[in-house]
Amino acid sequence: MRALLTTLFFLSSGPAAAFCGTYVGSPGVELTNQTSQVIISRQGTHTTLTLANDYEGDATNFAMLIPVPTVLGEDDITTVRPELFQRFDNYSAPRVVTYECEDYEDDSYLDGDADADGDADADADADSDPGVIVEAEYEVGIYDIVILSAEESGSLLAWLTSNGYGVDADAEDLLAEYIEAGSYFFAAKVNLELSSEGGFLEPLQFGYDSAVFSLPVRLGTINSPGEQDVVMYILTDNDDGKVGISNYPKIEVEDECMADIYGAGGVDNFYGEKFANQWLATDGAAWMVEYAWATSWCDPCASEPPTNNELDEAGFDGDRSTTFFTRIRMRYTPEAATQDVTLYASGLSENEQVRYIVYNEQMENRFPVCGVGMVEDPGSCDDELITDEPDDTDSEDDGEGPAAENGWTREDGVDGSDSTADGDKSGCSAVGSSPSAYGWPFLLAVMGIFGRRRSAL
Prior knowledge:
This protein is of the alpha+beta class. The chain is 12% helix and 27% strand.
C-alpha cells in the first residue's frame, strides 16, 4: 500500500479525507478518519461499494457505521485486497508526460486523437436498547458486522453506547434523518487484534439494490478535521458512460499545459495550490473529474488497465471491453456537506484525463505554457539547437526569449500560475511519461488533483 509510484503524481499536503459513514469507538477515545477511497460499481440498480480507510486513535473497540437501504445478506458482504485500490489509482491518476521533436515525426496527432435476507432471529445484546433491532450478524474478515434498524436516533445512540461504542452526540440529528428515510445501519466492528496497527483497514465491500445512485458522506463529517476529501473510482457499463455528481458544483483546474513542475517546488506545491485556489472560490463543497475512459484502453497509459479479474473483484459483472471507468475527486467542509452525494451516469463516453507536460521550448508552438497560454514567437522543432556560445549579434530580446502580449518571457520561467489554456487531453501518441514518486499516504492527504474536461475527437 505504501509502494512508491512512478509516472503518476500526488500531493503531500492538505486536509484529511472523508469516510462515507461515521466512526464509532470506545467512549472517550477520539478517532480521526484520515483517508478515504471508494470503489463504486453501478450496473442497473445494483451498487457495490468497496471502502478503504485508515484511522488514528487508540481504541480497544472500533467500528464503522454506514446507512444502507436494505438488510444485507452475508453473501452481499466481503473483503478485498488492499492492492486493488493501488491498481485503480495507478491506472487513473493524473500523469506527467514529456514530448521531444521525434515524437512528432508523424504529425497526424495534431489532427486529433485518436439473498438479501439476514439472520432474522439474531439476538441483540442483553443490554441493547429495545428501540433497536439487530436484523443480522456476520463475521467477515477482520470485521464483526451487524445490521441494525432503529425507531429513533436516541435509541441507536443508546445501543452503541451500551455495547461499548462511543459516537458523538452531534450525530443524532443526522441519524434521525436516515431513520426517517427508512435506512438500516451497517455497523462493522473491527477486531484490532486481527488488523494492522493503524494504517489502512482491510477494505470492506458490500452490495445492494436501490434505484438511488448515491454515496452517503454526511455522517463522515462528524469526524471532520475541517476539510475532507474522497476519491471515487466508479465502474459503469459502457453505454452508461462517464459519471458525475448532480447536487454539488463542479470545478475545473488548468492542465494540459507545459510547466517546470519540479522547478516550481514539486508536484504537491504546483498542483495543490491550483486546486486550493479553485476550491476556495466555492461555498465549501466541489468536485471534479480526474479521469474518464473506456477501461479497454488508454492514451497515454499510466499503468496497465484493470484486468477482468480485478474488475470482478470490484463487483463489476463484465470485462474490460464492456466497462467505463470514471475517477472523481471531491472536497467539502462539514458545513457545506448538507446532502449525501447524488451520482448520475451521463451516457456520454467522452474521454477526460489530467495531464501536465514537462516544459520544452521546442514544443511552444504546440502546447500552452501553464499560467501564460500560447506564447508569441514560439520555439519549435524547426529551430536550430544552439549548442555553442552565442555570438555578439544583437537581438531584440537580449536573450530573454520572446515576449507575449502578457509580458511573459522565457526568463520569467514556467511557474504554473493560473490561466485559461485549452489543449487536447483526450489522448496523446508517442509520449514519454515523466517519472515521479510519492508515497501512498500522500495521495489522499490533499485531494487536489484536477482536470479540465476534454472530449475525444
